[in-house]
Amino acid sequence: MDRLSTLLSHFGVNAGTFHSGTFCGVALHEGEPVGHVHLLQAGELLIKAGNEREMHLTEPSLIFFPRPFAHRMFADEAMHSQVVCATLTFDGGSGNALAAALPDYLVLELTEIPELASTVEWLFREAFEGHCGRMAVMDRLFELLVILLLRHLISSREQQPGMIAGLADVRLSRALNLMHEQPHTPWSVAELASVANMSRASFAEQFRRVVGQTPADYLLSWRVSLAQKRLREGKPIALIAEEVGYESPSALARAFRRKTGLSPREWKAGA
Q1: Which H, E and C letters describe the chain, residue by residue?
Q2: Alpha carbons 219 and 121: distance in angstroms, whole number
Q3: What are phi and psi of 85, to 5 degrees?
Q4: Which domains does the chain have, with CATH numbers?
Q5: Taking the alpha carbons of 140, 141, 146, 148 in that order, is the dihedral positive or negative?
Q6: What is the pLDDT of residue 94?
Q7: How far apart are CA 213 and CA 22, in angstroms?
Q8: Residue 132 burial by CB count (10 A; 0-12/13-18/19+): exposed, middle or buried?
Q9: Is beta strand 45-49 parallel, antiparallel or unpaired with respect to 106-109?
Q10: Pairs from 46-55 (Cβ < 8 Å, separation ≥ 24)
Q11: How far apart are alpha carbons 221 and 178 in whole angstroms?
Q12: Are the CB atoms for 27 and 75 separated by under 8 Å?
């Protein structure tokens, strides 16, 4: 069962490489409307995320900010830092269902994520060997890196309650996949429980504990997230309502307001 492809078909990731090579000095990323991924290839690096304690990295590492998040990086000449960096944007904006399901940031030593080893090696080779078309290749490799990281997170089973934790649960993931693939279907808890091969009560309790929402609330959140993406794309509200499972634009507007506090028109104007 593919737990990622449907998500990525709606909320794909786009990367833009902006630094590769020696890093020396201070880089402050604050107030930017994008996420970031940084790879420490060699040397040392100091990084401070938000108001958290400063981290001193001494091993090759991945630093991942899926959404806009203030952070600062520092290195001096004695640290011999070699860093590759890219901005990240998910389709539908940083508030979309996939980006919102991820932690504010992750810092992992590359040895902790061996599934990424060959892609990281290829990315470093492009970064430091000066091949033709290297920036375009690096952008695609960063995007692949994020997909592989998502795969790693789903398989790690060490998540906080949310979508990723639900996808890591073998039985709940079957129900989540159906909601992701067929948001227009009026799924009942009984139907989803049957797909998960669980009793209705057990399914509802485990879903709420692992995902952090009731199945009905999750389906509402997913539908509204899809509607927000379609609104950004300029799709007519009547077509969006049909796509995400509401019998009329007014029914979608009521659900949208219940979730966001705004009508689709008001939300679009603000977005």
Answers
A1: CCCCHHHHHHCCEEEEEEEEEEECEEEEECCCCCEEEEEEEECCEEEEECCCCCEEECCCEEEEECCCCCEEEEECHHHCEEEEEEEEEECCCCCCHHHHCCCCCEEEEHHHCHHHHHHHHHHHHHHHHCCCCHHHHHHHHHHHHHHHHHHHHHHHCCCCCCHHHHHHCHHHHHHHHHHHHCCCCCCCHHHHHHHCCCCHHHHHHHHHHHHCCCHHHHHHHHHHHHHHHHHHCCCCHHHHHHHCCCCCHHHHHHHHHHHHCCCHHHHHHHC
A2: 39
A3: -135, 150
A4: 5-156 (2.60.120), 164-270 (1.10.10.60)
A5: positive
A6: 67
A7: 45
A8: exposed
A9: unpaired
A10: 46/73, 46/74, 46/75, 47/71, 47/72, 47/73, 47/74, 47/107, 48/72, 49/104, 49/105, 49/107, 50/104, 55/107
A11: 14
A12: no
- Predicted confidence at residue 133, as pLDDT, reads 92
Query: The tokens of 2 are what?
Result: 């593919």
The answer to whether 62 touches 39, Cβ cutoff 8 Å, is yes
**8 A C-beta contact, residue 104 and residue 17:** no
Flag residues of the chain having pLDDT under 70.
Answer: 94, 157-158, 271
What pLDDT is attached to residue 156? 79
Question: Has this prediction a pTM greater than 0.85?
Answer: yes
Token readout for 131 is 């091949």
Cβ contacts of 176 within 8 Å, gap of 6 or more: 3, 163, 166, 167, 211, 218
Cβ pair 161, 206 in contact under 8 A: no
| Cβ contact 45:81 at 8 Å | yes
